[in-house]
Amino acid sequence: MNLFEVALAARENAYAPYSGFKVGAAIRTRDGQVFGGCNVENAAYPQGTCAEAGAIAAMAAAGAREIAEVLVVAGGDMTVTPCGGCRQKLSEFSGDDTVIVMAGLDGERERTTMADLLPGRFSVTHLDGEKHD
Ligand code: THU
User: Fold this and answer.
1) pTM score, two decimals?
2) Average pLDDT, whole number, for the chain?
3) φ, ψ for residue 70 (rounded to 5)?
């Protein structure tokens, strides 16, 4: 499945009445499954969720845990980039080599890796050796 097509289709269903900024995301897992997500806003603004979070939730609900690639798509001249919170959320299921693709409605514009997107990322390895009493 084409990540751009999946993310674009998810974006069509974005619920963004407050920002007017529709975002779609698609994840490919290391075993080849694909999951889409869109942003879902809320009248109580902080309760809104990003497209990446939706795709991660769909992936986790299916029992998948390892992200090989994620694509994010939005409109506008400036290329969309995952917010700080989503970088950390994606990091949980990513390797340093996980590919992050940023796309406009016209297609892919930029790509990077998890290691470059969130340098010095905090992970479960930081929890080792500091267990609860
Ligand atoms: N948003 C995403 O869904 N993903 C991103 O990577 C950036 C921002 C959403 C959150 C909010 O619904 C809207 O875009 C405006 O910030």
Assistant:
1) 0.95
2) 96
3) -135, 140
The single-letter DSSP state of residue 104 is E
The Cα–Cα gap between 20 and 9 comes to: 17
Q: Say how many Å lie between the CA of residue 50 and the centre of ligand 1.
A: 5
Where would I find the H helices in 1-133? 3-12, 51-61, 84-91, 114-117
CB atoms within 10 A of CB 99: 18
Q: What is the CATH number of domain 3-126?
A: 3.40.140.10
- pLDDT confidence tier of residue 132, bands split at 50, 70 and 90: low
Identify the bridge partners of residue 102 per DSSP, sorted by sequence position. Answer: 72, 110
Nearest to 89 by CA among 72, 75, 76: 72
Atom of ligand 1 nearest to the CA of 53: 3
